[in-house]
Amino acid sequence: MRRLLKLAMAAALTLLPATAAFAQTEITWWDFLSGGDGVRMKALIQKFNDTHPDIKINATTLEWGVPFYTKVQTAAAVGQQPDIMTYHISRYPLAVPTGILRPFTADELSAAGIKKENYVDAAWNSATSDGKTYGIPFDVHSIILYYNKDILKQAGLLGDDGLPKGLDGLDNFNAVLGKIKALGKVQYPLSINSDQGASIWRIFYTLVAQQGAKFMDGKEIMPGDASLKALDTITNWVKTGYSPQLISYEASIALFTSGKAAMHINGVWEVPTMVDLEKKGQLGFQWGAIEIPNLMGQQATWVDSHSFAIPNSTVKPISEEKVKTVLEVIRWMNENSISWASAGHIPAYKPVTASADFKNMQPNAVYSKLADTAVYDPISPLAGVAGPIYEAAQNFIIPAINGQLDPKDAIDQMREELQSQQ
């Protein structure tokens, strides 16, 4: 009997480690990623869960924009916030002063093996305020110039390397647009989304930054004449018929993909659209994409970043153990972000962009150098995704480029509107 009892106890003790090994730490995850981004992120989360039996990410996707950020703030106030969330870096200047983001300590980052030098400088710096790191960048996403290789070749504007030539400098670029129009092969030389403030803001801000100017200098909004020059440039493209008037986001893409526009300015997130159409044999031409040419004097491009952050709650703060697990998730996501790059994004984690897999990913590898001259939205609560600046662009810049408002009046009214909100 004693022998049987000993055997039973030994068997029970043998089972204990196995039971403990399958204990899981559950992580509540919120994101705002839909479409192709959503599909890719869900695949990454599934892969993480499959390879980490001790951790389970429970993911929820919420509505993009203001609804997401409002939900986060409300949830944190009552202690029902997620353990980890995606967050646009352009929103940090608005979020940090409100205390909604929990900063990571140097010791926490070090213990997780997360090092500043492994990340794109502009992205990491934009996630840092007063020496504190409030989030970890996941990507750099920007606007780029898509182009129809067949049309550019016919116009003598394509180099032997398959890249456009002669586009740098505004006079040269406008001459190229004129040459393409005269060729008579397309309806428009350049397609831009001319009825949506967010799309135009990205182009407008890029042209301001390329002049070495600031959109905001302290409390002063749009000092000097750089903003007017940027607006005049876009207005001229529409006025001369180089670009369509009052065209929606979807229609601006369709103009390019149908071969009715030779070039198209849009976000890197439309790269999968081109790739998919090409694979299906539905594009009808060879295409490529490069960073926005240096039109105004110095290379610069508007960018934003998806990042990972922890909501801050004084009601129910996250535990130290959960922070360690969250950082393990973040480190793994960045180390495996090559699949995220297939969505057009530039990984913020430098070892991935230095890999052979990324260098063979086209046209991503070609335009990825824009990360070195990336310009984020102004550091102001007025800026960031779905913020007051985006709304002002809709209310004033859009009417100006479509001939409904004088450009100078548009700049003056936009300045007055934003200054009243400071």
TrEMBL record:
| Alphabetically ordered keywords of this record | Periplasm, Signal, Sugar transport, Transport
Superkingdom of the source species: Bacteria
What stretch or stretches form a coiled coil here?
none
The protein's location, in the record's own words, is: Periplasm
Q: Which SUPFAM superfamilies match?
A: Periplasmic binding protein-like II
List the GO cellular component terms. periplasmic space
N-terminal signal peptide: 1-23
A Pfam family matched by this chain, by name? SBP_bac_8
Classification via CDD domains: PBP2_UgpB (cd14748)
Which InterPro entries does this entry report, sorted A to Z?
Bact_solute-bd_prot1 (IPR050490), SBP (IPR006059)
Major location (coarse): periplasm
**Database matches in PANTHER family:** ARABINOSE-BINDING PROTEIN-RELATED, BLR3389 PROTEIN
Give the record's family classification.
Belongs to the bacterial solute-binding protein 1 family.
Q: What is this protein called?
A: Multiple sugar transport system substrate-binding protein
Record organism:
Rhizobium paranaense
